[in-house]
Amino acid sequence: MPWIAPGITIPAVALLACLVSIPPLLVHFKARNFAATVLILGVTILNVQNFANAIIWASQDRYSWWNGKILCDIEVKLYIGIAVAADGAVASIFRQTAMILDTDRMTVAPSPQQRRSRLAVEILLCIMLPVLVMAAHYLVQNDRYWLTTSAGCTPAFDTCWPTLLLIFLWPVLVCLMGSIYCALSVIRLWRHRKEMSSVLSSTPGVTSSRFLRLFALGFTLLLGYCPLAILAFAENVSIPRHRYSWAFIHPPDWAERIILVPSTERLTFDRWAQIATGFLFFLFFGLGKEATQIYHSWLKMTQRWLPTRCMFRGKHHPHQLGAGVLPRAEFALT
What transmembrane ranges does the database entry give (predicted)? Predict the structure, then answer.
């Protein structure tokens, strides 16, 4: 297997993107921020796929490739579903920020009905809609999947009109909804910028720092997601389309229609965007106070574990470090 520099770099950066996404994931999971948790978890899953696929299909010799059965069947559905879930999560984040900044309807604390309504909308956008799009993909899946260099498992779509409506239209609609809520949030944020602390104090568990970082993250992702969704839809509209035919899309040999596509381009733009998004999570939430507390707890666990291990070894090797006891080090994160 010819391992050239990109074949080593891609798995390394994908794995690093997964690792640095863990602290932000824990931060939002502990804060019970459902939409942000789904967003970070989904992108992390995609980066796990990027890491594994870049190793499995690193070679440009297609005759040496594994056919990817079962694994790719799962991956191509996750690829499609998580893309929609990420758009839904960003839209949910801006919907929530717009509600928080709505001083005309502000309450001391959200009522149980308001919390259930918010969760229902987030489940609809982040879970139910992606699942429906994943299921609808089978209707227009003319090949089982494609295999490409480094990227590995890649979804296949038939060039019929339902593909536009079932697959490529939903990200555009969800992103446009997120853009509307984003614009509303920006207007309200500017209007209440002087009393921001008092406005946010009415929402339990929300601080100015976390709110602004989440807003900045969502805004950054929306700037990337929305144009890409519109561009993908526009490009697919320009492709000549034919009438839908189940027999044409799913012939008797459909299960063996695995298309091998060797490419000199080691990874497509969308896969690099997934990796970059993992580092964005760390940039916005891996350096904050909440993440620092997590790192501090990990260091404390390491401090307790390392001396115990060394003491255990010292019983078998008394000549090492006196009795095998390491001096306890004090760590502090500021």
Answer: 6-27, 34-58, 78-98, 119-140, 167-190, 211-234, 272-288
* Cβ–Cβ under 8 Å, residues 199 and 185: no
The residue type of 31 is A
Delimit the domains of the chain by residue range. Answer: 5-287, 289-334
pLDDT at 332 > cutoff 50: no
Helix (H, G, I), strand (E, B) or coil at 154: strand
CB-CB contact of 324 with 317 (8 Å): yes
Rounded Cα distance, 300 and 190, in Å:
42
- Torsion sign over Cα 18, 81, 259, 257: positive
Label residue 164 by pLDDT band (50, 70, 90): very high
Which has more pLDDT, 263 or 73?
Answer: 73
Q: Which of 13, 103, 20 is nearest to 295 (CA)?
A: 20
pLDDT at 319 over 80: no
Cα first-last separation, the chain:
46
Given a contact cutoff of 8 angstroms between Cβ atoms, the answer to whether 203 and 177 are in contact is no
Top-level CATH class of 5-287? mainly alpha
Give dist(CA 101, CA 182) in Å, integer. Answer: 11
CB 157 within 8 A of CB 140: yes
Question: Is residue 156 predicted with pLDDT exceeding 70?
Answer: yes
Contact assessment for residue 125 and residue 162, using Cβ atoms and an 8 Å cutoff: no
Cβ–Cβ under 8 Å, residues 90 and 225: yes
Average pLDDT over residues 86-93: 96
Judge contact between 60 and 4, C-beta under 8 A: no
**Predicted model pTM:** 0.84
Conformation bin of residue 138: beta by default, left when phi > 0, alpha when psi is -120 to 50: alpha
Rounded alpha-carbon distances, angstroms, from residue 270 to 79, 154, 175: 11, 11, 16
Kindly report the backbone phi and psi dihedral angles of residue 145, in degrees, each rounded to the nearest multiple of 5, phi listed first. -175, 170
